[in-house]
Write a structure and sequence with these properties.
By secondary structure, the protein is an all-alpha fold. Helices cover 66% and strands 0% of the residues. Helix 1 packs parallel to helix 4 and helix 4 runs antiparallel to helix 5. The N and C termini lie far apart (34 Å).
């Protein structure tokens, strides 16, 4: 059974598709050949909010759930598996901080 996305989740997935197609996929082979991300890629991911999609609003995030976060990783992987793995690792770290971190550590996200 296909999950029905909320309007906000649909908007996130559309934004992810557009961003992936324009800002990630065109550089995938260059990243693979250089064995490194182009300058500014991580900064752009930060600016667009990709790193905080699953952070609770209390801590400045968008508070999306794990299902849509997984869908974001899957869509980014269509443009670059390397960037998707980086995001997945980041999201796992965020999850660990949210579950086990001190309030000060959570606020630092």
């Amino acid at each position: 059974m296909q999950r029905k996305w909320t309007e906000a989740e649909q908007m996130l997935l559309r934004m992810t598709a557009t961003y992936t197609d324009q800002e990630i996929a065109p550089y995938d082979m260059a990243m693979a050949n250089a064995n490194h991300y182009p300058d500014g890629l991580i900064e752009k991911l930060i600016e667009t909010g990709f790193l905080t999609i699953m952070v609770p609003k209390t801590y400045g995030g968008a508070d999306f759930g794990p299902e849509v976060t997984a869908a974001v990783v899957e869509r980014v992987a269509q443009g670059s598996a390397s960037v998707a793995v980086t995001l997945e690792g980041h999201y796992k770290s965020v999850e660990a901080v949210m579950r086990f971190g001190t309030p000060a550590l959570k606020a630092a996200l």
